[in-house]
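User: My instructor asked us to take a sequence, write out its structure as tokens, and then describe one feature of it. I'm not sure where to start. Here is the sequence I was given:
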Amino acid sequence: MTVTSAGVLLYRIDNTGVLQVWIAHMGGPFWAGKDEAAWSIPKGEYTEGEDPYVTAMREFEEEIGAPAPAGDYELLGEFRQPSRKVITVYAAEVGEEIAFVASNLFELEWPPRSGKRQLFPEIDSARWFPASVAEAKLVKGQRPMVRELCDRLDGRGRSFTAGPPPT
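Assistant: Let's start with the prediction itself. The structure tokens for your sequence are:
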């Protein structure tokens, strides 16, 4: 059976015309100190019969610590990950400033084989990045989400730039 997740890709076009997206750095010891390919959209799993949009909104709040901002959310698409998981993504342009508050926690044996269990946040930070920078920061399977957003906005005649190349 295919594992399914749903998530939110928020975007804005800043006053210089740069498309920015809101992404989150994954928490826990595996991702600590990593930057490139260590970010994700806020998302979470759902099961057959659950509404993916409702899941995306719930998971945003759990992982960011605040409800998803009001906006005209639209289905951006379904994106198959290297793990075979399929992520259903909803995108919305937002004008209000949003901030990371605090993520829900997960328990993990750490250090490995120590018998000690610790709690870690699923997400340890989230913020805006130019689309070009976000592509490098996102895990490989999520990079097409940014490209799809750019293509969709371009197809609507929206004027923007993806921003500077990643450093």
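For the description part of your assignment, you could build on this observation: Residues 7 and 43 are 4 Å apart (CA to CA). Try explaining in your own words what that tells you about the chain.
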